[in-house]
Amino acid sequence: MHFKTNSAYSRFNNKTCSMTDNEKRIEQALEQKDWSEIKIKDSWQIFKIMAEFVEGFETLARIGPCVSIFGSARTLPDNASYKLAEDIAYKLSLHGFGIITGGGPGIMEAGNKGARLANGKSVGLNIDLPFEQQANPYIDMDKLINFDYFFVRKLMFTKYAQGYVVLPGGFGTMDELFEALTLIQTGKIARFPIVLVDKSYWGGLLDWINKTMQKSTNNIGDKDLELIQVVDTADEAVAAITEFYNKYSIKPNF
Questions:
Q1: Rounded to whole angstroms, what are the CA distances from 144 to 10, 53, 130?
Q2: For residue 20, is it within any domain?
């Protein structure tokens, strides 16, 4: 007995099997859905987002003043930036600041490691990613929070940080840096020190911002670049944070 193959089904099945994960996500996003299906999915998503906010607020509100440290997840332990991040975190911890990182490897791991070595508070805001991201072993277990939503995680970095220390990194690092600059520039959050570490890495970007974004096109104000300090050493980075708060007679409240 012979059966005819449904050619339309075969084409559909072959297409589905050959699609990449990204193409499948696009196709699913474009699928027609009825109103009840949309409403149910979005309602459950709201509760999940709320749960992440609640966990973040309850955990971080008890920690006290912190500094968020950013940089590449791909930086290896033998890299100079890794050792610099570790040293900065260690010294900031000795000054009473907790250390917040994205919880993963690379510069994030170095920041948590420095805090751990100084017996400071070591916070990890981890996120589920298809690559790179796994919680590092130097985070205090009661201060490890796992997120599904980037925007919730980003809020925690700014809401509970008294300063940003930004080492060489990629798109994610740039995202966090410019998010903080935008919020300060627009007055949505109070000004806090933003310290870029490694003048040779950041020099080209800052030169472009100064010449093109500010002077040539006037897309930012004359004083916007004053929101950023650029340093090369751990002591300079720590001084930029501590001197800012000494100026305003603000002390960590541990």
A1: 47, 14, 19
A2: no
Domain that holds residue 87: 49-247
What gap in Å lies between CA 231 and CA 1, rounded to an integer?
79
Domain count within the chain: 1
**What is residue 10's DSSP assignment?**
H
Side-by-side strand order, sheet with 66-70: 144-147, 122-127, 98-101, 66-70, 164-166, 194-197, 228-231
Q: Give pTM, 2 decimals.
A: 0.81
The tokens for 22 are: 């990204």
For every residue of 35-97, DSSP letters joined together read: HHHHHHHHHHHHHHHHHHHHHHHHHHTTT-SEEEEE--TT--TTSHHHHHHHHHHHHHHHTT-
Does residue 40 sit within a domain?
no
* 32 inside domain: no
Task: Provide the pLDDT for residue 130.
Answer: 67
Residue 229, beta-bridge partner list = 195
DSSP strand pairing (164-166 vs 98-101): unpaired
**Cβ–Cβ < 8 Å for 162, 241:** yes
Residue 3: predicted pLDDT: 46
Per DSSP, the three-state class of 112 is helix
SS3 156: helix
Containing H/E element for 164?
Answer: strand 164-166
CATH number of the structural domain spanning residue 108: 3.40.50.450
Q: Which residues of the chain have pLDDT under 70?
A: 1-19, 24-41, 130-133, 248-254
Q: Tell me, yes or no, whether 39 lies in a domain.
A: no
Write down the pLDDT at residue 37: 64
Is 85 within 8 Å of 68 (Cβ atoms)? no
